[in-house]
TrEMBL record:
Transmembrane segments: none annotated. It comes from Magnetospirillum aberrantis SpK. This is N-formylglutamate amidohydrolase. The keyword Hydrolase applies. One of its GO terms (molecular function) is hydrolase activity. The keyword Acyltransferase does not apply. It holds the Pfam family FGase. InterPro entries: N-FG_amidohydro, UCP029730. SUPFAM superfamilies: Zn-dependent exopeptidases (SSF53187). It comes from the Bacteria. Keywords: Hydrolase.
């Protein structure tokens, strides 16, 4: 289990990046509910979880360092004063302190599975805002299932979620993993490991009860998929 945007933490040394409390705890800073769902899924599936421990406004762990969105000066219309005019040394320092340890931990965990002869599956959890901007219509999806070229997990998971009959399920909606999927492309796609990413609408995981419900839902649909022995193969698509 992975969660790239698990934390809204901004170290005191960065002086809150010049932001007020509203911005520091909004979606612009982290994926609300994603960490709790990730931990709940890990407990239910009895598997390890790696969660990034820093706000994506400090450095986004789902963007390669150097990408314009890695340390954004403006994000979702919010100006981030503490990210303006950073030197290369400062940007590199953030990557060394927070980005690379997260990704090294993921690499190490996966390597240990492979050394034991087990092909691991990788599941990532994100959340998305109910509306895209003020005054916008409600996004209809309750959950999105994201994938790139490898659909081994996405297709059966989509079918299982749709079969419930009580959910609006997006296939690469509201975002597409074909366009942006750094963590899973790097650690799973390039290595031929089966993987999938979930996007859950944030009003559904805004409290503990909602997070527990969604951990239950996702565990129910994942269990039969993970139990399929044909999934445990390395395939590069």
């Amino acid at each position: 289990m992975l969660c790239d945007h698990a934390s809204a933490d901004i170290p005191p040394s960065l002086d809150q990046l010049g932001l007020g409390p509203a911005e520091r705890h909004a979606h612009v800073a982290w994926d609300i509910g994603a960490a709790e769902v990730t931990r709940g899924l890990a407990r239910r599936l009895e598997c390890p979880a790696v969660l990034a421990g820093i706000s994506r406004l400090v450095i986004d762990c789902n963007r390669h360092p150097g990408d314009v969105a890695s340390i954004p000066e403006i994000s979702c219309g919010v100006v981030v004063p503490g990210n303006s005019g950073l030197s290369e040394a400062e940007a590199d320092g953030r990557a060394e302190r927070w980005f690379w340890p997260y990704h090294h931990e993921i690499s190490g965990r996966l390597a240990r599975f492979l050394r034991r002869g087990t092909v691991p599956t990788v599941v990532s959890v994100h959340s998305f805002t109910p509306c895209l901007g003020q005054g916008a219509l409600l996004r209809p999806w309750h959950v999105g299932v994201l994938s790139n070229r490898d659909r081994r997990m996405a297709d059966p998971v989509l079918a299982a979620l749709a079969a419930r009959g009580d959910l609006v399920v997006g296939d690469n909606q509201p975002y597409s993993a074909r366009e942006l999927n750094y963590t899973l492309d790097t650690h799973a796609g390039a290595a031929g490991l089966p993987h999938v990413s979930f996007e859950i609408r944030q009003d559904l995981v805004a409290d503990t009860a909602g997070c527990e419900r969604w951990a239950d839902i996702l565990a129910q649909v994942l269990r039969p998929v993970l139990a399929d022995p044909s999934l445990r193969r390395i395939e590069v698509f």
